[in-house]
Amino acid sequence: MRPGSLRGAFPAFLLGGLLLASCHGGTPPGKGPPIVLITFDSLRADVVGNLGGEPGLTPNLDALFRGASWSGRAIAPSSLGVSSMASLFTGLRPWQHQVLHDRQSHLAKALLTLPKALKALGYATAGFSGETSYSKAFGYDQGFDQLGELEKGTAAIDRLKSLRGRQFVWIHIPEPAPPYLRRPNFEDRVDVKGLDLPPRVQPNELAPYFDPAVPLPPELRQRFCAMYRLNVAFADDRLGHFLQALRESGQWDQTLLVVTSTHGEELGEKHQILNGGNLGRQLLEVPLAVKLPAGSSLRIAVPGGQRPAAARIWATLVEAAGGEVPPAFSPSLFHELRGAPAAVLSELYFTNGTNQFSLLDGDDQLLRESRFAPPQPEYYRARLAEMGRGNAELARSLLSEPPEAIFGRLLARFRSTPPFTGQGAPKLTLERWRAGSGVGSVQVEDPGRKAALARILTQRWNQFLPGETTPEAEAREWYTAELH
Q1: The pLDDT of residue 434 is above 90
Q2: pLDDT digits (tens, 9 = 90+) for 28-62
Q3: Which domains does the chain carry?
Q4: Which of 80, 141, 342, 362 is deepest in the core (most CB within 10 A)?
């Protein structure tokens, strides 16, 4: 471990701090409220009724938003699920927690996860995950007394109905992520007239259009959008059952409840589909609702209309439970930020030869692309080839070499290249949101604004890091920390 590194020192330092009462007006140890965290997978902010989506699509979220202490749009730490969920569970940015891509998606034991932190503060902890990537196999059981599969949600509902005292319950709803299923019970919420909808759309049917060079036909985009919205309606209905169970517990008023999503979903806005391909707003803007316990002295300090970092949820829950949050972590929503508070950093690593960074500040978004390797011509076909049957089998037959060889070359270069600096000058793009224009964000030329945001982005990425190193060296540090 290099001298002065914070990486290996994080866990022991934090656990000691968390055993102390918060010095920022939080709840003393032993007096924390029941805490419930519910996360969706791939729920865009703009499909939620209260955030401008079509009326009637998300009635349960809409009702929660109306009664929440704070509700609005938040910014996901990444557009890649494993990176974003790791940030929600640790309060750290992707580069800090090192869950950087699907081939590096295990939560290290050295990390202080949310259930670990709450358990150290005297909470009983239970989780129900609807996604394999967020299970015991990937380190998500750390700190949980019980971590089970969500399945139909029966066990989670029973747990919520019996909620009492210092308990933490996490529920991960895997929808509306694909596969998209046609759900006739919810067709009254979605305009499907004239659309020939299939029974289901599998991920490998969507994946060919993850390649920006493959046009998504307008009629197919309409079909995918309708199927996605049907799954949004289904996810909202599942949420309704969990919220009803919480009400039946008699603990609704006493509970701190947070509902959000790992990231959004792209449906062709930046010539891609699914998630993890870029850092467009359609992938980063997610719904967030926070309901504080009745009579709580805590107050959300985020102004209405501002888009806070979703990674701040970790500190918010820990502080409400009576813990103290060290400065290297995303601060809680109970604190007003100084400097450029509205600017939120998001990260995406190990794409086709690039690492991507976003700084979202109101209507402006600076995108930085740092290259670690030349793009691989067969990258997107290799991704599709790894997805099983159908289109995947065809893609594998058309490859000139196995996908393992393509990803192996990229991985070798990724591991040996500084992630932020990269090789050569980074590509900087400034986009501005055009509300009501029908086109979303458009590229703008504003050299002064671009330079100012570039300075903030660089400062944010380097904050609390002792210096930039390569992913390979960082992985060695984590391994050393794990052994000790």
Answers
A1: no
A2: 555 789 999 999 999 999 999 999 999 999 999 99
A3: 12-342 (3.40.720.10), 354-483 (no CATH)
A4: 80
The enclosing H or E element of 173 equals strand 167-176
- Pairing mode, if any, of strands 285-291 and 70-75? antiparallel
Distances (CA, A) of 211 to 154, 272, 423, 447: 39, 6, 23, 30
Could you identify the residue written with the tokens 């799954």? 231
* 471-483 vs 403-415: helix crossing angle, rounded to 10: 80
CA dihedral of 7, 13, 14, 19, whole degrees rounded to 10: 170
**What is the per-residue pLDDT across 364-419, written as a single tens digit (0 to 9) for each?**
999 999 999 999 999 999 999 988 777 888 899 999 999 999 999 999 999 999 99
pLDDT exceeds cutoff 50 at 10: no
Sign of CA dihedral 75, 366, 368, 280: positive
Q: Roughly how many angstroms between the first and final C-alpha of the chain, as a whole number?
A: 12
Measured between alpha carbons, how far is 20 from 14 in angstroms, rounded to an integer?
A: 10
DSSP count for the chain of H helices, then E strands: 15, 16
Q: Is 102 exposed, middle or buried (0-12, 13-18, 19+ CB in 10 A)?
A: middle
Residue with tokens 């102390």: 20
pTM value? 0.93
